[in-house]
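Quick illustration for those who missed Monday's session on complexes.
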Amino acid sequence: MELKPTTNETNESSEATRSLHFIEQIIVADEKSGRFGGQVHTRFPPEPNGYLHIGHAKSILLNYGMAKEFGGKFNLRFDDTNPAKEDVEYVESIKEDVKWLGAEWEDRLFFASDYFEQMYELAIRLIEKGKAYVCDLTADQIRETRGTPTVPGTPSPWRDRSVEENLDLFRRMRDGEFPDGSKTLRAKIDMASPNFNLRDPVMYRIVRAEHHRQGNKWNIYPMYDWAHGLEDSIEGITHSICTLEFENHRPLYDWFLDELGVYHPQQIEFARLNLTYAVMSKRKLLELVKTGCVDGWDDPRMPTICGLRRRGYTPESLRIFCKTIGVAKFNSTVDATVLENSVREDLNKIAARRMAVLDPIKLVIDNYPDDKRETLAAINNPENEADGEREVPFSKTLYIERDDFMEDAPKKYFRLTPGAEVRLRYAYYVTCKGCVKDENGNVVEVHCDYDPETRGGQSADGRKVRGTIHWVDASSALDAEVRLYDRLFNVPNPDDPQNAGDYKDYINPDSLKIVESAKVEPALADAKIEDRFQFERVGYFALDKNSTSEKLVFNRTASLRDSWSKVAKK
Ligand code: ATP
Ligand code: MG
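Prediction with magnesium ion bound:
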């Protein structure tokens, strides 16, 4: 099938003929048949019990993407039906993350808890139809009487209560007359169904918990399966996209809506995102935060949206990532390299180039006048001419990377070694004369002569050099702390149940290395938090929120190239 969306602002013409993924195909077919009156209305329904991660980003971009592509609407809805673990801190962080990703909900921000009254009324309708009953079994007893895949469940002794008795008991459950957990409201479906979800599932349980929006108003709370379809129905959602685990729940989703005779959206399941070298369960992410394994939810090593953002990822890089991995019906695990490449791809296009020296050693140009200062023009981004040039100060004493000098260099070393000529990026050719060592034999200064005829890094006589190195001018350099992040885990599958021990045993001890005394060029004084740069020859970096006017702090977003694949090939 070919792509024929009604509105199509983001897709380029080269994409106009790409094949549709299965959800697009469903939507196109529904538009054609006139189902849902040709409308598309999707939602992202997070439970506010944690921060969002890259898997949620996939869901957000998919749901928002479908609405945008087909000229429809997108809702942000908090599925806040489980008061125990929910919190307004999470509500606020989720709103911020969804907004940052560029998914616009306009005036359609909803809370499932605002529908509790309607849900209660609909539950009464089911009781009146004889399709729901109050059950006095405990949670354990319900589990024990559910049967097995081959043995039908045992009907509850309370299954045949009269409608009147059920109505009375359900009202009293709501009024708080019974202790927590002592009764439930259950749908009366089929205790012999091959699908466990249809063996009289629980719709309401008694919990006295303070809800972050409803306070103590409710003593009963709806279960996910009961609530979710109603939320979709109330909001007029057309395509209710969820992850594959809910495939077995779809018959129940459909049963509730059909029995009630209310508007009925289509549930569609897709494969959740799993990523190597990461854990994605909210419980584990929370544990990493609580146990201090990481520095909060937005630690740049976390797969959370705020962590990736702090690390230097852009919304565009996450869109590139999601486009690359596609939408599928079968679970798989995506290699972390795919995510890292997506940010390289975007930052290569947009990040300003700057010079930064992480492990500085002085380079003194002996034949350069002591008091001379000049500025040289440096290109901001070779991928984008419109970004123009900047001025970089230059003088007799510079900083270069310690490993760009070697006293006894092997043959293929094309950087500074006595006698060798190299290009200082944007500046001059210099020829190494030697070095100065301290009493322990450590090199403390490298000395060279420059060729004044090579200003701008080109020689008039066409003479070539093999190496180009970056540098910063010593007198005007700014101090910076640079945080070199790497993958948080050192095995691809940290939460594989086959592993010995706990996933936390696989934390990569080298996932953060702090460089305290880097030197960076003065143009970086203007950087704002989250601005992203390519430090030439070093990698991609973003200015961290811990930066102060005394000390800039940069997070490494990614190395310039994928160093892990090289390791794997060796
Ligand atoms: P839990 O329900 O255990 O708290 P959850 O990750 O499912 O965790 P929700 O807040 O319910 O969290 O998720 C919101 C939406 O994000 C759901 O529609 C869910 O299907 C989707 N989602 C969650 N994790 C992923 C993932 N790894 N890949 C794709 N979509 C995901
Ligand atoms: Mg969920």
